[in-house]
Structures are given as structure tokens and as C-alpha cells.
Write a structure and sequence with these properties.
With about 325 residues, the chain is α/β, with parallel strands linked by helices. Helices cover about 35% and strands about 15% of the residues. It has an 8-stranded mixed β-sheet with strand order 1-3-2-4-7-5-6-8. It starts with 10 loop residues before the first helix and ends in a 7-residue tail after the last strand.
Length: about 325
Amino acid sequence: DALAPMCVLVARDARRLVARDGGLRDALRVRTALRNAVTWNVLLMSNAGDETSTLVIGAHLDSVPAASGANDDGSGSALTLEIARRYAEAHETLLPRVKNRLVFAWWGAEEIGLVGSRYFVKTARDNPDDSPVKLEDIALNINNDMVASTNFFRGIYKISSSMPQCVRDASEKISKFHRELVEDELDLLYDDAIMSSSSGTDVAPFLAVRIPGGGAFTGTSTRKTTAQARRFGGTAGAPYDACYHRSCDKYPTNLDADVHLELTQANAAAVQALAEMDDLRGYLFAGAGACATAADAPRAAAAVDLDDTAAWYRTPFDADNAPFMAKPRASDKQ
């Protein structure tokens, strides 16, 4: 098929053009380069735990070309690595307690359509002999993407009502551990971060094939509300991350170390609790409904198209296109 160059005009630039004298007429010079590239997923698997009940804890390794990627997603990659490091250092005490296998994953090429995580899920589904993990053996996914935004809200995943009820119910039981650590032990506030199979982050392919997901999130270029500024501090009306997909996304200036530590602790507590659970699937899917049955879930997973990169490619440059929604708690609604 013939390929045509394209460019993206984000909403704020479009508004600037509309407001300009002389109308919308303008000229653009577009220089396009097409090339093939190789990317990798990096996987680290525990030698303890039931292989048929696997936790996949992931973050993406790439950034957009314009950015160094300190927050997006160096913060999530570092969080995931820290949990893996804790298990490695304390293997004599922690690993004997692991009942469900741990897979730590660092995904390639997230920014151009969740390529790495889609490949992992597709291979686990369609070519299990070529995959280190079979799809039916994955109990859940915990995703760590942008967890140190400087004007943060402390977001804990809540799965969108667009997803099947069983996926929402099971995912809620994952997020319960994050919330308990943040709210009860650290005595901190949180908001819901709404996620679905159409969110532009690596939990989406897992949700699409009805694998429950959880995680934490601190915000992209969407602007912080007045209610969130009261809850979390920071600046109302300013982006959660003013350097999102920009060259200023650098270490250490574009990271909030305190919220990164808090969410690392919350993730570590959730992973440990879920990894040490005797009947993880029973816990996740108790009362979750028909779509969690052995007959229905594989049919639903098989129907998901994981090949079409264009369908999965979402680049939220600003608030009008951001895939993540921070949901105010009821007491914060104005």
C-alpha cells in the first residue's frame, strides 16, 4: 500500500491558528523518514511460584523522540526494577513465600502503539510454544507508567465502565492493595485513574483480552483541577507534567521523588500481597460473573485484534487527547 506523509496539529496550536488574523491559511514543510527498527521486551521471571498463576508487572522502556523520558517512562521502569531488586536481594526470605509466579517486564515501543506489550499478549495467546508465558496462565497485570509527575495527582487505577463487569471487579481487587497502603499506612490521599482497553498505556492489551489490571499513575499533560490542588497540593490549571513528551522530561528536574517513593511502596505492597496469595484467581474472580468462566474468557480473548498498530496508536499530546482521566472523588465535585 502507498504511504503518505502526515503531521499532527494539536488542539492548542489549532486554536492559535483559528484566533490569528488572516484566518486558517498557512504553509507547512513536512520532512518524513520511514525506516525499520528492532525493539525488545526485557523479561525477568521468578523461579518460584505457580506458573499457571502469573503476575506480570510492567513498564515501558522507550520514550518519544523529542524527550529523554525521565518521567515517561523512566519513573515506571525504575519502580518496576526496584521491586524486582527487592526480591533479588531478599530472595532467601521473600521467594519461599511466593505462591504465584512473578514476571517483571520492560516493554519496547509503547509510544508508537503499545508494540511490545501487544506482541507479548498476542504471542502468549496465538503462539504459546514461542512465549515464556501462556495467556491462560496470566492472572493479572500491574502497569507502571508515569508515576513521578511534578504537579501530580496520586492516581490508583480504576477500570472504566466500558469494560466487562468481571474485569472491573477483579481489577478493583488489585487496586484495593494500592489504596490500603496509600490511605491507611501512609495516610495519604488518592484519586481514581480511569483506565480501559482504549487507554494509551500497556495495561490496555491485557484488559482487552480480559486479564484484570492495576497500577498507579500521576498524570500527563491534562491540567490539575482546583479540587485536586486542594487534595494534593501543586498548581490548579497547570499540567500534571508540563514536560510530557517534551525535551525537558529529564532527570532529576522533571521527577517528584516523594510521590515516586510513595507509589513504589504501594506497588511493592500490592505485588507482595498478591504474589503470596494461596488462591489468587479465586480471590480475583469470586462473584465476578460469566465472562470469567473458563469457556467464555478464551473466546473473548481470541476475538481481539492485536495486530493493527494503527488502531492501538494513540499519542495524547495535550489535555484534549489524553487517554487518562483523573476521576474526582465524590466529595471533591464542585
